[in-house]
Amino acid sequence: MVDAVLVEWEGVLADTFIERRDALTRALSSEGVYLDDFVVAAECRGRSTHAAAAAVLARAGHDDPILVDLVALRATRSFAERLGKGFVLRRGAREFMQHVQASAPIGLVTSASRAETEFVLRLAELDGAVSTVVCSDEGLDGPSHEAFERAVANMARRCTVRRAHVVALLPSSRAVRAAKDAGVRVIAVGSPAHEALEADGVVEGVDGLTVVQLATIAGLPMLERRR
C-alpha cells in the first residue's frame, strides 16, 4: 500500500516550465549570453534556478559566481512576475490532490523556491492538501536525494511512513534519479520513454489517477496493512 505521496508541482500539477526557461533565457540575454532554447531547457529541467543558471553559464564558458548570482536573481524575479499574472493547473490536478489527501499524506519536493511554491499552492487552493514542502532554497539543490529523504522524515514524524512505500510523481530524469537514490518508488509523469527508464512506472498525467492505481503502477501491494 502507499504510505505517502511526493510530488514536484512544476510539470505534474502545473505547466510552468516554459515560463521558467524563458525567464532564464531573458536573464542570460541581458548579460549578453545567448543560447538555444533547447540548451537552456536541458540544463533547467529538474534544477533550481540558481543551479540552472550555473550550468548554462558553464556550458557557455562563463565561470563567474557573481554572474551566476545576478542571472539567477533576474530569472527568479522574471518568473515571479509571470506567475503573478496567473497560471493553469494541469487537467485533474486539484481532484488528484484531494483524492490522495484522503488516503495518504502528500509532500512536495520541488526545484522551485519556497516563495514560488507557496504562491502556487495558495492560488490553486491546494495549500491545505500538503503536509510538508521541501524547496530548492533550503540549502538543497533540489530535487536531490537529500530533499526526498527530508520530506519522508518530515512526514514520518506524524504517521507511519516506510520509505519503500512512498511514491513520488516526478517530471524530470534528474528528479527520478534523486528519488530512486533516496529509496522511494517513482512514477515519471509526461516523460519521454528514454528519460523514464529508471522510474518504476510512467503516466502521461495525473488526471483520474487513484491511490490504488499509484500502488499498481509503482509495483506496491495493496493488501498489506500498515504496521
What report would you give on this structure?
The protein has helices at 17-29, 37-44, 49-59, 65-84, 93-101, 114-123, 145-156, 173-181, 211-218; strands spanning 4-7, 106-109, 132-134, 166-170, 185-189, 201-203. It is of the alpha/beta class and 227 residues long. The mean pLDDT is 90.
The radius of gyration is 17 Å
Strand order of the largest sheet: 3-2-1-4-5-6
Number of helices: 9
Question: Which H/E pattern describes the elements?
Answer: EHHHHHEHEHEHEEH
In CATH terms, the superfamily of the largest domain is HAD superfamily/HAD-like
Average pLDDT works out at 90
CATH class placement of the largest domain: Alpha Beta
The computed structural class is alpha/beta
What general form does the structure show? Answer: globular
Outline the low-pLDDT stretches. Answer: none
CATH-derived topology of the largest domain = Rossmann fold
Biggest beta sheet summary: 6 strands, parallel
Counted up, domains total: 2
- According to DSSP, the number of beta strands is 6
Note the topology.
Layout: E1 4-7, H1 17-29, H2 37-44, H3 49-59, H4 65-84, H5 93-101, E2 106-109, H6 114-123, E3 132-134, H7 145-156, E4 166-170, H8 173-181, E5 185-189, E6 201-203, H9 211-218
Parallel strand pairs: 1-2, 1-4, 2-3, 4-5, 5-6
Helix pairs in contact: 1-2, 1-4, 2-3, 3-4, 7-8
Short synopsis of the structure:
With 227 residues, the chain is of the alpha/beta class. The chain has nine helices and six strands.
